[in-house]
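> run fold SEC12-like protein 2
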Amino acid sequence: MFHLPKVDNPWFEVQDGNLRVFKWPSMENVLSEAQAHATVKDFDFSPDGKFLVSLGSGGPGRVWDLTSSTAIASLPKENDEVFAFCRFSQTNVKNQVLYIAAVRDRGACIVTWNTTTWKKVGSKQIVRDSISAFSVSADGKLLSVGTIQGDIVIVNSASMQVQAVVRKAHLGIVTTMRFSQDSRALVSASMDSSARVTVIKEMKKNGM
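> ok
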């Protein structure tokens, strides 16, 4: 995997589960951790570039301090949880939050974490199907979930209430999604080779 965020650290992961972080463009090694996970499923940088959160195919998530190049916290999961996606979000100028989309026996939920204490502060079930894609808007106000049934769900991050649902937005599994920079539209794609743009403003107005 390869990720190039807006901060100075791109991220590389190889198939053996080793984590490697390099500064860009000097390619100076910032972090090299053997067997960080058996297999890495997802990862994200904090908005300030100080932290990296990684999720494996099993077990807890891990928080890495890129200043000290060490793991500083473990994010435990419930017995029936499987962590699927992680995304940081800037709630205001000083505060940021971490969201983890997790799959449970009874459906999929979004778990919220405090990024100072790295403690869980909330969890809310969003859909009954498994989550196959997850995104957070640039302004931090909206979350989006894609499901294996092809549905798109928009969630208000403040209340954790479902704001809108687009049933069968795609005929196949939603594989990726991303909000526009102004948070007024959501681009999604599916394994059925389709892509669509969902306008958030129209969804609010029409109550889709």
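Helices lie at 200-206.
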